[in-house]
Amino acid sequence: MRLLLIHPNTTMMASLAESLSYDGWEVIQASTLKKARERMEQGGIDFCLIHEGVPDGNVLDFHSQFEQQDYIPAIVLTEKPSVRQTVLFLEYGYDDVVPGDVDFMELKARMRARMRQRLQKAESTNPFIYDMGAFKFDLMRRLVQTETQSAQFTCKEFEVLLLLVQETGRVLDRDTISLALWQEPDTKDRTVDVYIRRIRDKLSALGLDELIETKWGAGYYFRPVDQARELWETLKAPVKPKRERP
Fold this sequence. Notes:
The chain is built from 10 helices and 11 strands. The chain is α/β, with parallel strands linked by helices. The strands form 3 sheets. The chain has a 5-stranded parallel beta sheet, sandwiched between helices. A 4-stranded antiparallel beta sheet has the order 6-7-8-9, with helices on one face. The chain has a two-stranded antiparallel sheet with strand order 10-11. Helix 5 (83-91) links the parallel strand 4 (74-78) and strand 5. The model is unreliable at 234-242 (pLDDT under 50).
């Protein structure tokens, strides 16, 4: 997940960026609103943390940048918060206003709360996002998302992953997977093993190592998740049975 951090104090910004990166954020730093606008125009921002003291513009007006894109949660850091100031920021559309010296743990908790709201809003309007409990599938963007992180898969990686989800709990051997997705048995290059390894590496980065298991000598299976069957109801497609090698 990409966080745009806008702060006039480069030392403080670096300290914040380091702390947030431990929580899985990819932090993009900008010390001015001009640099922040340039980065916003490129897209791909999931959250914004902005300090009111940026020197080259009005933070209130800057919120219009978010309105030009999909909903992006934004929190303002302020040195001397007042009721009037807080009301102004909230009325202009910012999600929260916190003191600049806020405890990191509190700041991160507030950010997680806003991200949960963002995901709930996206799910209410996007039929291609499925909540699996500890993580979510975004079928349009081929993403697996946790609360603070996401991993994107190639088309074929995502097909392999969804095939295993479709058959949750059932062991699929290499030939069955290969026939379903490549219309031929797995060959000596062990293509299926390569894709499973790539998928596992990406899931591991999200802390989801346990989702795909190996049954030695038999194949792979997706560990049962309560919501897995529900996910596949709208994507159901028969898996081709294993075919004998000629």
